[in-house]
Design brief:
The chain is mainly alpha-helical. It contains two helices and no strands.
Length: 74
Amino acid sequence: MSDDSRTETTRTRTWAAAVRSPWTVVCAVTTVVLGPATATASALDRANRAPLHHTAEPHRAPGHLVPGAGRAAA
């Protein structure tokens, strides 16, 4: 067996062991769980910093009467 193939085999085993390590699994799960939560929190923070939008009042023509506004209660 040559030195090159032995080095390649060692590298492959090391990489395979790293992928199967518990810390790799913990980091992957944390990324999957917290990634979207972080993005959502960031979007909510930006939305909270935005100026408030007021709803527009419906336009009423001058002299427009609201039905029942001038009648006395019976």
